[in-house]
Structure formats: C-alpha cells, structure tokens
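Q: what sequence does this backbone want?
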C-alpha cells in the first residue's frame, strides 16, 4: 500500500455512554466517508448502539495499521471498558473514569502519532463531577493533557467565531475582558488561522463588549479603556484586526466579507447567530492544541438516547472538518 494514500486515522470518542454519542458514532461509521475511524470506546456499548439504530456495523479491533480503504459500516475499535452497563437517558457516575480514559487515549494517541485528529461526541459534565472528579469540559481536559494554551472556536461553512470567554456568568464577563486575556486569545486565533486554515494574513473581526461597541463611552468604557488600546497594539505588530464592532450588525452579509473569523467577547454574544443559521453544520474546534480536535456543537440529548433517532449531522460535519484540516496541513507541509 502506498503510504501517501493511507486514509487519515480519526480517533472518535463516544462521550457519555448513556447519551446519544454512541449512536451518533455508529451512524458516522455507516457513512462512506474516506476516513479510518477508530472508535475509542467500549466494544459492547457500540454493539448495543448499533442494534438500537438498526444498523449492521462490523467492529474490528484496531491494531494500529494503516489502510487505504474502508467500507461503509466498518469501524475499528480501541476498546476502553465501561465500569457499568449504560442505561440510555440515565448517566451513571461510575462510568466517569471510562469517559476520561477515552479522552486520554485519544489525546495521547494524537501526540504520539497514532491518530491524525480527534473527533468527540458530547459528554455529560455533571456525571463526571458527581463521581468526585473536577471536570470543566473537553476543551479544558485537552488543554491540560497537552499543556497547551487554547481557545474555543465554533465554525460553520459560512462563519468562524472564537470566544474570548466561555462558560462564565454574564456578570463576570467584564472583569474577565483584560488586555492580557484578549492579547493571548487573539494571538492564538491569528496563529491558528494561518497554521490550520492557511490564511497568509488573517483578518479578524473583534466585537465590542457593550451595545454599539460602547458608543464612544456612553454605553460603557471597556472599549475605550481595554479593547481599542489592545487592538492598536496588535495592529502595530502586523495583525489585521477590524473593530471593535457592534455585535448587532457584525454578522450581516455585507459585513462578513471583511473578516475571516470573528472574536466574540462572551458565549451568547455570537453563538445564537451561528446556531440559528447552521445548527446541524456547526463544529466546535479547540485552537492552540498540538493536534486537530473537532466536536459536535450540541449536548447529550438524554431524552433521545436509546431511540436510535438522533441526528448525526453535527458529528459528520465535525469529521468532515477534521479531514479538511488534515488535508490543509498536508498541503502546507
């Protein structure tokens, strides 16, 4: 086999065993996507998920070898055993160690060169914390595992949005918007747009924090005191930055052509726009990692778990984006 023709090896984690993740993974395996999917999960869990979906999936123990073809319905498995058999819709904290072990194998495998990227299905943060294990989410886990400084970005085919802050109460956001934070985030976004997306001179639109981007200080001073001075300093370093922009007009079609990505100041400032336009095509990426990681942009949908009816579109989109980034990386190397 020609090594150049080997299919990319994507480590795919199933997330919360009692959620829709295992069924989404099975439906991803049933597609003809040209990827060597390796499910980092429990073999019996996947078998039960396939039965719930009414799909005949061939599970193959992963031996780490390359392949240049995969038939739809074939899925390699790196077996990580459950602690307790899943009950769809009812997360069991006893399986928290299983979930974390799948993430650790995927991350370590990427850093060791066993996988070309990670694609993650949704997990249940509360269940892990109920097991007595402090856990904030995939992004933080991978950042700590890789000892990397990271930024969350969500992307659809039409729009890329990075976040200066993530899961914070709205009351805590203004204090979190500092020159140090914004500088760190913008440098990571700028670097990753060049390194992963191939933009030679990335253009980043930066939203203001306040309505109308503060309206000259009449609606808040964060733009005058923090955001504008920081943007001016980074422009002097050669970055192409547009803003601060009023969030209510930044996403209209006539404006979008001005930038390759947008930096929002907080979670709900921009994500409603993205999700309302392309919920089933939006992908969560972690920028700053030494490997490619993409994910669905939705939760575990416990009410759908076990029905076999969950829509796999977002996981398929995440896999496609990972494959696209792998190809871009190869083209730039």
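A:
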């Amino acid at each position: 086999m020609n090594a150049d023709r080997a299919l990319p090896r994507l480590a795919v984690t199933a997330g919360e065993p009692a959620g829709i993740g295992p069924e989404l993974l099975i439906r991803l395996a049933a597609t003809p996507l040209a990827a060597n999917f390796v499910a980092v999960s429990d073999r019996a869990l996947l078998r039960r998920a396939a039965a719930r979906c009414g799909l005949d999936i061939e599970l193959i123990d992963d031996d780490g070898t390359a392949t240049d073809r995969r038939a739809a319905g074939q899925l390699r498995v790196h077996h990580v055993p459950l602690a307790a058999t899943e009950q769809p819709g009812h997360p069991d904290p006893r399986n928290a160690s299983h979930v974390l072990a799948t993430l650790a194998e995927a991350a370590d495998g990427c850093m060791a060169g066993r996988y070309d990227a990670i694609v993650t299905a949704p997990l249940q943060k509360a269940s892990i914390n109920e097991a007595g294990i402090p856990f904030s989410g995939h992004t933080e886990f991978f950042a700590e595992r890789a000892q990397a400084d990271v930024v969350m970005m969500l992307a659809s085919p039409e729009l890329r949005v990075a976040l200066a802050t993530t899961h914070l109460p709205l009351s805590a956001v203004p204090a979190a918007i500092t020159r140090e934070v914004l500088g760190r985030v913008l440098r990571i976004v700028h670097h990753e747009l060049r390194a992963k997306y191939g933009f030679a001179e990335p253009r980043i639109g930066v939203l203001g924090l306040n309505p109308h981007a503060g309206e000259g200080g009449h609606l808040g001073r964060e733009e005058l005191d923090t955001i504008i001075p920081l943007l001016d300093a980074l422009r002097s370093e050669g970055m192409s930055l547009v803003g601060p922009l009023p969030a209510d007009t930044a996403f209209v079609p006539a404006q979008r052509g001005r930038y390759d990505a947008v930096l929002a100041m907080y979670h709900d400032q921009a994500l409603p726009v993205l999700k309302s336009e392309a919920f089933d095509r939006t992908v969560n990426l972690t920028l700053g990692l030494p490997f490619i990681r993409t994910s669905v942009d939705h939760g575990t949908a416990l009410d759908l778990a076990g029905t076999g009816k969950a829509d796999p579109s977002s996981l398929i989109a995440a896999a496609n984006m990972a494959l696209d980034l792998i190809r871009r990386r190869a083209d730039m190397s």
